[in-house]
């Protein structure tokens, strides 16, 4: 039996499970033991589900004994706490939903359970997925496993830190402007945001509905493809879910990327970018050249500079509409000590939401209000078209674009907490991808003084396969993704 | 773009979000700062550009209207902040 079961990849664990060299209960117990040992320091988990997990693991072992085994059977996972889990508290890391127990499963949770996945816990996030550090969680801040004084990124910081720390073999996160890729980059794991519509959002607590997508955190690209195989596909319960066919994403992961065309958009090598990040990404790009890909520098996506403004109009506008439902009537926190409906509603929101959520509700309400709609929301939607067209034009020439995931390595806890704008800037390389709706991944690409650096690979709409091929080929000739933090 | 306190109060009222005097002042400063960064969009000529509401081109998604069981009422009401029997209990809408 390998020493650290909880650090195995999905495919390695699967091999051992089907050969009966390990059981899912042993694998699950290894993750639960790690949670017990390190989560006091990392604080990745809002709600632990050890009992549920062990029962699911026993069920998985029974299935394996009968030879009914899929690639994810018996594999322990963390679920970001903004995806509904039937009978398991789902908080969005907000006081508003602190006691909310969903009566149904999100489609992704249903799909993972049907695939035999074991759920070991619900992972911490910035409240309602609004943030880039998990410091906006109403409960506690998650710590970066590579340096406990630094943030894990966000908003899916608990999912990223949990996988990096070996608390689970993989995790699900959600990504509205970088909330999977930025924390993946900060925690040295793989994090993938699929094409908009590829994965059902049913049961995902809505933040910005035209941008939100669910995706996996894993140790390598092969695992990422395996999880995507399980969660992708059309769902009648999400009207924006795409009816496109889903291929087996692992099919072409053979290390061969000869002749593939990669563009390097110059606007993503921004001012204020740390030189170590610049150097690491340029070294990674060289690797692609060595593997036979054709790299073209100096590609230009000039509207990139507008993406931050577009995002911070669209996302808060949609959020302000989505969060209007938390009025203290049907579920969630409620201020009941009044006979006035309006006072009840106002106090419910005042006491139930944290500062960043309130800021975005205010921003969005303003952008949508009478007299400002055309100048802000409609204008942002038009510029969105320009951003999308530039990506479409680039993908006529290139199979993929490569950029840094974030301009910096993980920052210190507290460093940006009082400056919303500088926090927003940490997502400058990831938000254009959500605006355009295209898929993007972050994969480990090096370290600077022990702190992880992520590389982003962006692909064409519904061409997730291309991204996995490039990532997998890169991981055949590098070992960043196999490094683990010392805890 | 500098917001006034009155404007901030108006937005809060539209959002039905209660705010203290301190929160109003802080929101005024922070929102004004953020709005200044949106000015960059004004320079962009979008006169012939259609808006994009969402990035994949699905329109009018319909499914068959087939009856199926709804969630058990008790599971739904279990999350109610206040209830009376099988009903959600709310403050009076008309006073």
List the helices and strands and how they pair.
The complex is a heterodimer of chains A (487) and B (95).
Chain A: H1 10-18, H2 24-42, E1 45-48, H3 50-65, E2 76-80, H4 107-114, E3 118-123, H5 157-164, E4 170-175, H6 181-186, E5 190-193, E6 213-218, H7 221-231, E7 261-265, H8 275-290, E8 294-299, H9 307-322, H10 341-352, H11 355-368, H12 374-397, E9 400-404, H13 420-425, H14 431-436, E10 440-448, E11 451-459, H15 464-476
Parallel strand pairs in A: 2-3, 2-4, 7-8, 7-9
Antiparallel strand pairs in A: 1-3, 4-6, 5-6, 5-10, 9-11, 10-11
Chain B: H1 5-15, H2 21-36, H3 73-77, E1 83-84, E2 87-88
Antiparallel strand pairs in B: 1-2
Describe this structure in words.
The complex is a heterodimer of chains A (487) and B (95). Chain A is an alpha/beta fold and 487 residues long. Chain A has one domain: Alpha-Beta Complex (Amidase signature (AS) enzymes), CATH 3.90.1300. Chain A contains 15 helices and eleven strands. An eleven-stranded mixed sheet of chain A has the order 1-3-2-4-6-5-10-11-9-7-8, sandwiched between helices. In chain A, 62% of the residues are buried. The model of chain A has no long low-confidence stretch (mean pLDDT 96). Chain B is mainly alpha-helical and 95 residues long. Chain B has a domain of 44 residues: Histone, subunit A. Chain B is 34% helix and 4% strand. A two-stranded antiparallel ribbon of chain B has the order 1-2. In chain B, a hairpin with a 2-residue loop joins strand 1 and strand 2. The mean pLDDT of chain B is 92. The chains are: A alpha/beta (487), B mainly alpha (95). Chains A and B meet through helix 9, helix 10, helix 11 and helix 12 of A and helix 1 and helix 2 of B.
Quick summary:
The complex is a heterodimer of chains A (487) and B (95). With 487 residues, chain A is of the alpha/beta class.
Q: What descriptors fit this protein?
A:
heterodimer, A: alpha/beta, Amidase signature (AS) enzymes, eleven-stranded mixed sheet, B: mainly alpha, Histone, subunit A, 3 helices, 2 strands, 34% helix, flat
């Amino acid at each position: 039996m390998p020493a650290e079961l909880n650090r195995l990849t999905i495919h390695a664990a699967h091999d051992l499970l089907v050969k009966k060299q390990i059981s899912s209960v042993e694998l699950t117990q290894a993750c639960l033991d790690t949670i017990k040992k390190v989560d006091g320091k990392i604080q990745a988990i809002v709600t632990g589900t050890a009992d549920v997990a062990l029962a699911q693991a026993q069920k998985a072992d029974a299935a394996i004994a009968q030879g009914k085994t899929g690639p994810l059977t018996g594999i322990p996972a963390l679920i970001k706490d903004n995806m509904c889990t039937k009978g398991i508290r789902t908080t969005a890391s907000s006081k508003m939903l602190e006691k909310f127990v969903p009566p149904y499963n999100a489609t992704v949770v249903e799909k993972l359970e049907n695939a035999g996945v074991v759920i070991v816990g619900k992972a911490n996030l910035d409240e309602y997925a609004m943030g880039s550090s998990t410091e906006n969680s109403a409960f506690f801040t998650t710590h970066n496993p590579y340096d406990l004084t630094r943030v894990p990124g966000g908003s899916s910081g608990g999912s990223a830190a949990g996988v990096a720390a070996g608390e689970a073999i993989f995790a699900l996160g959600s990504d509205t402007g970088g909330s999977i890729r930025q924390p993946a980059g900060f925690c040295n794991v793989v994090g993938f945001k699929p094409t908009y519509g590829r994965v059902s959002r049913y049961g995902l607590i809505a933040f910005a509905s035209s941008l939100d997508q669910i995706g996996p955190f894993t140790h390598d690209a092969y695992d990422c493809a395996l999880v995507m195989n399980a969660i992708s596909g059309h769902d009648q319960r999400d009207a924006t879910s795409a009816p496109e066919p889903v291929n087996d994403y692992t099919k072409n992961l053979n290390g061969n990327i000869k002749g593939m065309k990669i563009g390097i958009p110059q606007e993503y090598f921004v001012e204020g970018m740390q030189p170590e990040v610049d150097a690491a990404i340029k070294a990674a790009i060289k690797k692609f050249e060595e593997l036979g890909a054709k790299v073209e520098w100096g590609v230009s996506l000039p509207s990139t500079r507008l993406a931050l403004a577009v995002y911070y109009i669209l996302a808060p506008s949609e959020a302000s509409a989505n969060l209007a439902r938390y009025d203290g009537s049907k579920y969630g926190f409620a201020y009941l000590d009044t006979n006035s409906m309006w006072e009840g509603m106002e106090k419910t929101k005042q006491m139930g939401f944290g500062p960043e959520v309130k800021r975005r509700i205010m921003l969005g309400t303003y952008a949508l209000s009478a007299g400002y709609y055309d100048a802000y929301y409609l204008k942002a939607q038009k510029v969105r078209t320009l951003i999308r067209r530039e990506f479409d034009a680039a993908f006529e020439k290139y199979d993929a674009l490569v950029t840094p995931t974030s301009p910096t390595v993980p920052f210190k806890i507290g460093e940006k907490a009082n400056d919303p704008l500088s926090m927003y800037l940490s997502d400058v390389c990831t938000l254009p991808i959500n605006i355009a709706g295209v898929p993007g991944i972050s994969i480990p690409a090096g370290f600077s003084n022990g702190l992880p650096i992520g590389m982003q690979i962006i692909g064409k709409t519904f061409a997730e396969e291309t991204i996995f091929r490039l990532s997998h080929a890169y991981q055949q000739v590098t070992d960043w993704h196999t490094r683990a933090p010392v805890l | 773009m500098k917001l006034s306190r009155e404007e901030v109060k108006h937005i809060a009222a539209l959002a039905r979000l209660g705010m203290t005097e301190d929160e109003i002042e802080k929101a005024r400063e922070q929102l004004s700062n953020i709005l200044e960064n949106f000015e960059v969009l004004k320079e962009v000529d979008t006169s012939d550009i259609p808006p994009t509401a969402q990035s994949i081109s699905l329109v009018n998604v319909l499914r068959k209207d087939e009856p199926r069981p709804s969630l058990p009422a008790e599971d739904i009401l279990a999350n109610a902040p206040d209830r009376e029997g099988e009903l959600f209990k709310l403050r009076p809408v008309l006073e």
